[in-house]
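quick one, 208 residues, struct below
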Amino acid sequence: MIAHSSALNSNVLVLNRLYMAIRVVNARRAFSLLCRDLAEVISVEDGKYLSYDFDSWTELSELHELFGDEYDFVRTVRMQIAVPKVIRLFGYDRLPKQSVKLNRRNIYARDHNTCQYCGERYPTNELSLDHVVPRSQGGGNTWENLVCACIKCNSKKGGRTPAQAHMKTIRKPAQPKRNPVISMRLGQDKYACWQAFLDNAYWSVELR
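---
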């Protein structure tokens, strides 16, 4: 299979057999599941859910004009295949996890890569994590005590609390109810169809 790495790294929402969102995988993993008949493509069209197996999705992909610019395409020697946005597993009906993992990526996503002191947005490599209440003063590694901070603000604050450093956070940090990376994706038109499976959900979606 010949494809640009960006297409094979596109995000695909995975549903369990009961149409509940359980995780997000890249296109390479999604195609692997489809080719082995472990999953089907779910397409939301005019408010209805349509399902396609790998062969029928491949045939539909030949009609490129039906997909517009919202889909990425993987190009093989003989054809082009649209990267599905949603797939459903046939043999998996376990419920999704109810917790959001506390890690650097999720904190950056929750804070939208924005320094919580100066309010400026930065690329990931120019950001750091800051303990609002420093560990030296008893602050822990919790959602409520970790924020995204630029190098300059983190250095300025040092080992002090915001009050001690005459600084303040632009919003109160809290644990998100939904995986923040997914919330960021939902803000893009490309992944708007995911909303149909997440609107009334309290569960989080695990990234793998």
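The CA atoms of residues 157 and 165 lie 6 Å apart.
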